[in-house]
Prior knowledge:
The chain has helices at residues 3-10, 16-23, 39-50, 69-75, 87-90, 95-106, 160-182, 201-207, 219-224, 228-244, 292-348, 357-388, 400-417, 441-457, 519-529; strands spanning 55-59, 64-67, 112-121, 131-143, 149-158, 185-191, 196-199, 216-218, 248-254, 265-271, 274-275, 281-290, 396-399, 421-426, 436-439, 464-472, 475-482, 533-539, 543-553. By secondary structure, it is α+β, with helices and mostly antiparallel strands. Strands 6, 7, 8, 9, 10, 11 and 12 form a seven-stranded antiparallel sheet that branches. Strands 13, 14, 15, 16, 17, 18 and 19 form a seven-stranded mixed sheet that branches. The protein has a five-stranded antiparallel sheet with strand order 2-1-5-4-3, sandwiched between helices. Strand 11 (274-275) and strand 12 form a beta hairpin. Helix 12 crosses helix 15 (519-529), helix 13 packs parallel to helix 14 and helix 14 packs antiparallel against helix 15. The protein is elongated. The chain starts with a helix and ends with a strand.
Amino acid sequence: MSAREAAERLFAGAGEVRALCREFDWGATSLGPVPGWSPTLRTIVRACLESPAPINLWCGPERLLVYNDGYRRILGAKHPASLGRPGLEVWAEIRADIEPMFAHVDAGGAPIYAEDARFVLSVDGEGTPDTIAYYTFGLSAVRDDDGATVAYFNPATETTARVAAEAALAESRRRLDSALLAGEVGTFEWRIPDDRLFGDANFGRIFGIALDETGAAPLSAYLAALHPDDRDRVVALIEHTLATGAPYEAEYRIIPGAETGRPERWVQARGLLERDAAGRPERFPGVVQDVTRRREAEDERARLLAAAEAARREADVANRAKSDFLASMSHELRTPLNAIGGHTQLLEMELHGPLTPAQRGTLARIDRAQRHLLGLINDILNYAKLESGRVEYVMRAIPLADVVADVLPMVEPLVVARELTVDAAGAAPAPDGGPHVWADREKLAQVLLNLLSNAVKFTDVGGRIAVRCAQQGDAAALTVADTGVGIPADQLEAIFAPFVQVRPRGQPYAEKAEGTGLGLAISRDLARGMGGDLTVASVEGAGSEFTLTLRRAPDDG
């Protein structure tokens, strides 16, 4: 039989590698023409090519490679040039790893089996190791009848994808375990037919339960860790889940095992019931978390809230007492002041005889002091009423322009004395008399009077005050702007606090404006009491702009 016919017969069949083997010039290798191959070598080659599993044969003294279609995927770019070449040349990048294996087998050692062995390979066929790959393989000698080694049998399977997946799974599990440990969370599974409880290390640590090497413990050990006052409730919830299949959720106290040295703890547990094919309860997996710190924080928060509420009630009582005291004292002080004012007027009318110019001057000073002090006391009385909630509002539709017209004459003497200019053109009524606002007319006039008085007080001689009205959707705004001293940015909110007076930077404390510092506090409280608000915009040294915003009313009044 010719070499060609022998090759056609040995390598007969379908497949890329078989076709290559039929065309390969085996006579040019150390194996020689196929007819000269030993029966043992031909048998193992035929078995290799017929196998669907990846198999490689290292044949003859040079260990030339003969492999099947399955193994070509392992060779990658090395195929088809690897066919019939010395294997240690083909796998030159891992020669140091594999050559000792052949020496071991040649010395009569046991066949080699390696699982998930790691190699650094050259997959591009260029010979430079650049890829880490894992293989499960075997290596054993194939001997003929006289014991001579004719080949090495080398089945191999690449396991790189599985090893990577297992590594990723292990890393994911490590991260999960770290997260569970950090969150003091444990997992458990109650296998109902065996009445056995399985848990992870965190579960055992939380409950102080000794788990065996499989992670199991008797269910009785879990129940023994429950706080006696909570045990019946927890058992009832578990029985409810067993009976209905409803999700299990409970928060309760436990007393961990004495060996843990941990005091009473709070835990939260959740679980689901799983049934077998017949509908019988089979598994009860779930998670448990140590929530002691959360419960302690909630208890502390509740304690602080209770303390804060008690302090608020005490402050309310003290504030009411203060308001009642101020109101009472204001009434008590107003009575003699009104009497002083009345007697001053009687003297000025000369009912008790004629007055000298000097006496009239003295009476005028007494009258001014009486009115000033009465104004201060009225401010305190009004503020006390607001604080005590005793202010009543008579709300109706009020035309803003009418209130402006009523109040402006009240500050006219002060305006003239300080040579100020008041521009109220922006507050002139519209043709329909609007805008109208929902307000208590008396309270609205009081707010506007306070704003105008402040504008006059804090505007230098020759300055300008503007009053204007505007509609803003469902609201209307009344603005009083001045060219006065302005308000420092850090005092814009403080000016609405009671007993606070604006003092421009650099002004000596002794030169602060007269008054109680209640005007703006009263004005904003009154504005809010009417369902509106009072705001301010100011630039220090350039003036201020106070805006009273109230709900609009129909402009037909």
